[in-house]
Amino acid sequence: MPRRGLILQTRTHWLLLGLALLCSLVLFLYLLECAPQTDGNASLPGVIGENYGKEYYQALLQEQEEHYQTRATSLKRQIAQLKQELQEMSEKMRSLQERKNVGANGIGYQGHKEQAPSDLLEFLHSQIDKAEVSIGAKLPSEYGVIPFESFTLMKVFQLEMGLTRHPEEKPVRKDKRDELVEVIEAGLEVINNPDEDDEQEDEDGPLGEKLIFNENDFIEGYYRTERDKGTQYELFFKKADLMEYRHVTLFRPFGPLMKVKSEMIDITRSVINIIVPLAERTEAFVQFMQNFRDVCIHQDKRIHLTVVYFGKEGLSKVKSILESVTRWIVFFHTESNFHNYTLVSLNEEFNRGRGLNVGARAWDKGEVLMFFCDVDIYFSAEFLNSCRLNAEPGKKVFYPVVFSLYNPAIVYANQNVPPPVEQQLVHKKDSGFWRDFGFGMTCQYRSDFLTIGGFDMEVKGWGGEDVHLYRKYLHGDLIVIRTPVPGLFHLWHEKRCADELTPEQYRMCIQSKAMNEASHSHMGMLVFREEIETHLRKQAYRTNSEAVG
Length: 549
Description:
alpha+beta; 7-stranded antiparallel beta sheet; metal-binding
């Protein structure tokens, strides 16, 4: 028994000794792992002559802190990624569950209504809410505007031309033709089969039958595409024997067309106050008043004219022109007078913004739709209706793009005399261009104009005041309708850039003068005239030489 106990005691002693050695080895390895990595030839940081100084421990502490911060940042990033993946998986599960539910209806071009998942329709409607359809977007400058392009049943009036496209052309590409046909058919479906929430009343035909619209009742349309949202369409329909227009707004959020609204617009009592600032230029005013008489007095008959004249020279002649044009012979050879005009005289230097401000405030009969016009503008009765349809107090202002005609002496150089003005009003590449840098012609309600503060009176001389007003609307909440219209022309006239203009105004004036003169091809013919004439002389000489030989 004593020998057995001695053996057990010896084994226990060696076991404890082995455990002690193992613990010492682990502690030694731990100290080696925690020791800083140093270069064998480099001295440790700290005070010279010391192995471990204060700076050494600070550097070591900073290194460890940066290590833990990096690790913590990495862990936070991984946690965020896991949360995002978890959220996406949850949304997918919810989407699969919601697809069992039946959504609202969509509109196809055939007019039938399709059912779609509620999550898809929610997305499509969110695209409409994000787009500038029901409320205007605040934009930093005029370059941020997405302009509309206008179209009829047969033609498209476009701003983006380049050197191969034309300001007016038939839609050649099949996708563009199909798109416009689909849109018109969808608009007809909305009108002929209205929903209960549509703002229009059922009308009957002359025999009591239901009134049905067709593609021949389509008057005009506008469209524009916001590349990250979809395409907006504004459509106008009218029966020949009715006075009311039908307006349909459609939106294609890169998917099926979706109806935004359908309403009836009555413009029968909408009076337009055309305001024209003028100084001298009585010959141009004679031509303007001839157009005014034919369109406004004889056809539209819902117009008031306000002329704001600067200076004394030519004032009496302007009065005489107004009196003679507004007096005309009607049936039974009786004389009738047009009294809906106002002449305001300002004995001061011409300022377009000042003139339009005065003209707007001269109206004292409450709310009215105003058309800011120049004496060189030719407009049609159709344009006046477009003006009424695209301006709405507190909601929309209309900034049409004018088609500016080139110098007729260059355009019709092969004719002895240029044709009459009415025959020059064509949308061709060599006859003119869409004046997309001009913002002077606009239709807006008087209340909106006064609310926004009118024109900036600090702008003197040529140009600039219209851009300032345009930017005011862009910075506000109103929708700005910007589109080329076929019934609005700027007639060519010689420009003079005064020496008193600022450098920026003078640059704009010269640029406008150059662009107004002729098309790219006609300008090229003028520049290379001598080269062309030399070539023709050589050709004639060669032909004569061959004939003699």
